Amino acid sequence: MDELDSAIVRELQRDARQSNRDIARKVGVAPSTSLERIRLLRERGVIRGYHADIAPSALNRGVQALVSVQVRPLSRGVIDAFKAFAAQLPEVLSVFVMAGSDDFVIHVSAQDNEHLHAFLVDRLSQRKEIVGFRTSIIFQHLAKHDPAPLPAP
Amino acid sequence: MDELDSAIVRELQRDARQSNRDIARKVGVAPSTSLERIRLLRERGVIRGYHADIAPSALNRGVQALVSVQVRPLSRGVIDAFKAFAAQLPEVLSVFVMAGSDDFVIHVSAQDNEHLHAFLVDRLSQRKEIVGFRTSIIFQHLAKHDPAPLPAP
DNA sequence: TGCTGAGCCGAACGTTGTTCGGCAGTCAGC
DNA sequence: GCTGACTGCCGAACAACGTTCGGCTCAGCA
Question: Least packed by Cβ within 10 Å: which of A1, A98, A116, B153?
Fold first, then answer.
């Protein structure tokens, strides 16, 4: 991860669909060089993929929420099973496994409040390992798609 | 947003860096057609961008947390100002503006626990409008990068 | 000094992006 | 039913691009 790698990563975070030649020009190397760097970054697992960012409303996901979930017993089996269950639900956007008073925080979205409610009471609360959950509606979500590298510790 | 648009969006969510010809072949149209569709999807704001997914550790972000924040007074000015402040901090990955007992949930990451703590007490808690916040460490974060469209309501 | 390896470059060639003219299907108005 | 306008798709053409590979430079080391 030298300065060149960082510059390439920054460009791909900003716009993953620009041409390799554009990237090479912006970071100041030959296209063959940046191509090889990108190949190595993927191989080393630094770059995990490239994804289009889609407006939620276009996917019929007008309402979003964070759901804090407590499960019992707190064993690996229960945690892994619940994690896999949650991740596979279509309404779930992302699953956080947490330390602290909540065991999971789940970022979900649905067509509207009615569907969200139905999802919570029909799907989520079915699970026997859940001993409690708390849902908070998201008014607005600002996501940074190009987090900068922090200085080395 | 017909079936063709959905198929194209799905492909770009899965891999935003594949060639337009590949996408066209997979969804069963001519490359010129899929190119035009993609152009329109961007123009309509359905596709908001393309971003590389980078391993957090490669950005020196070994520890992540969710911070629930309460601010007062709950006026638009205070909310907008705090939102802008939070979004601009390098440690912040994303900002949720919430309904319910917490006003914000902030997804942050830092090099290690020490830096995280320093960030919380030196940067975040400086803000006068904050009347309380609660930090929960994230053990694991599973993100779905290709949420499927939900059935129309 | 000479050797070795790593990293970058530039040329070359097959592949792709992008534009544009044309064609088929649809629909409104008559 | 006919006409005309419109929309969306296709395929060809050319410029631009991706990808490979041989060779060059330079640092490190003995």
Answer: B153
Q: Which residue of B has its CA nearest to A10?
A: B52
Q: How confident is the model at residue B152 (pLDDT cuts 50, 70, 90)?
A: confident
Cβ atoms of B137 and B65 within 8 Å: the answer is: yes
User: pTM to 2 decimals?
Assistant: 0.93
Nearest of B85, B69, B68 to residue B77 by alpha carbon: B85
Residue A30, nucleotide of least CA–C1' distance:
C9
Whole-angstrom Cα distance, residue B2 to residue A63? Answer: 22
Residue A61 CB in 7 A reach of strand C: no
Which residue blocks in B60-129 are alpha helix, DSSP H? Answer: 76-88, 113-118
Q: Rounded CA gap, B101 and B96, in Å?
A: 13
> What average pLDDT does this structure show over A114-135?
97
User: Does A60 sit within 8 Å of B152, measured CB to CB?
Assistant: yes
Nucleotide closest in space to A19 (CA vs C1')? D17
- Cβ neighbours of residue B102 under 8 Å, at least 6 residues apart? A136, B68, B69, B70, B134
